[in-house]
Amino acid sequence: MVKYIEETAEFLQQKGFTNPEVGIILGTGLGQLIDELEIIKEVSYNHIPNFPTATVEFHKGKLIYGKLEGKNVIVMQGRFHLYEGYTLQDVTYPVRIMHKLGIKTLLISNASGAVNLDFKKGELMLIDDHINLQGGSPLGFKGVEKLGTRFTDMSAPYDQEINTKIETIASDHNINLHKGVYASVFGPQLETRAEYRYLKIIGADAVGMSTVPEVIVANHLDLKVAAVSVLTDECDPNDLKPINIDEIIAMAAKAEPNMILLFKELIKSLS
């Protein structure tokens, strides 16, 4: 993997992806941040050596380099999921590349379902902790110690200083921002009533199919990381309605401007 990482990073550096400070991963239905970006370079995933290729139709599949609030940023417009047939190493490969290129901070967004019924669709949740229910680890491969410590500490996977800044920004702009625990499942099927009850019992406030592998690898690489969930549906096992993907995407788009504001103001505040 070391050879692949060097090859990919060298290709992107030659394309002009130089001295990035912040990496951003955009979740399902969350692409409006690109409109705020001063784009300098962009490359489709399928043109990048050793990169996976996005397969979900509402994921654009581009790596974008530009300026946001005066900082050099790399944005993943489209992410990879286990349910698309990728491995955990595939899913997290872009994080390793962004780190190799020089980022110090990783910001992640996702769309998730509210297990905590005090949270409502269209609201945001700052992830304070997570539960990995994906059945594996992105660090579980031979030679991982060449890229970072094998036994990565996860006592505080989300940077507390950044989370405090995000909470302050939300308060200053009257954004209703919850804080909670995100459970990451394999997917792509949605949960049963019994599974939603289980998730609530074990302490999850929201559930989705991403983010946790990237956060584990970010911690493995000593990156500062923060993640915000856009809550797109309410998962009440006693009143569970059939899922409507179009409605979920529409709800993500409706809530996204507040998430963009949080990320922009945070990036502005980073030294």
UniProtKB/TrEMBL annotation:
EC number(s) of the enzyme?
A: 2.4.2.1
Q: Function of this protein?
A: The purine nucleoside phosphorylases catalyze the phosphorolytic breakdown of the N-glycosidic bond in the beta-(deoxy)ribonucleoside molecules, with the formation of the corresponding free purine bases and pentose-1-phosphate.
What taxonomic lineage is listed for the species of origin? Bacteria, Pseudomonadati, Bacteroidota, Flavobacteriia, Flavobacteriales
Entry similarity comment: Belongs to the PNP/MTAP phosphorylase family.
Protein's recorded name: Purine nucleoside phosphorylase
Q: List the InterPro entries.
A: Nucleoside_phosphorylase_d, Nucleoside_phosphorylase_sf, Pur_Nuc_Pase_Ino/Guo-sp, Purine_phosphorylase
Q: Which residues form the Nucleoside phosphorylase domain?
A: 22-268
Mind telling me which GO cellular component terms the entry cites?
Answer: cytoplasm
What's an example of a GO molecular-function annotation for this chain? purine-nucleoside phosphorylase activity
Major enzyme class: transferase
Q: In which pathway does it act?
A: Purine metabolism; purine nucleoside salvage
Q: Which keywords does UniProt give here?
A: Glycosyltransferase, Transferase
For biological process, the GO terms are: nucleoside metabolic process
Q: Which NCBIfam families match?
A: PNPH (TIGR01700), PNPH-PUNA-XAPA (TIGR01697), PRK08202.1 (NF006054)
